[in-house]
Design brief:
CATH architecture: 2-Layer Sandwich
Largest sheet: 4 strands, antiparallel
Shape: globular
Helix content: 25-40%
Strand content: 25-35%
Number of helices: 2
Order of helices and strands: EHEEHE
Structural class: alpha+beta
CATH class: Alpha Beta
Distance between the termini: 17 Å
Radius of gyration: 11 Å
Length: 72
């Protein structure tokens, strides 16, 4: 299992719900959350090792949002 951490510009729970539907259908994403209290709107994903961070970045940016790897 992997934990992937990203900086995003997803600012509302309403917009995050859209990703809930997308992430729930993804076979390699187990759980996810967005920290709306953090200024970086941190997206945290627990996933299988088969999904890479660039896959998540592409998925989020294809929906019009910014998504960048956050260094450890």
């Amino acid at each position: 299992m992997s934990v992937l951490i990203f900086k995003t510009n997803i600012k509302s729970r309403r917009k995050a719900r859209m990703f809930g539907a997308i992430f729930r259908r993804h076979p390699f994403i187990y759980t996810w959350s967005i920290d709306f209290e953090d200024r970086d709107r941190v997206l945290r994903i627990e996933s299988s090792d088969e999904i890479k961070s660039y896959d998540v970045v592409r998925l989020v940016t294809n929906h019009g949002f910014i998504c960048e790897d956050l260094p450890d």
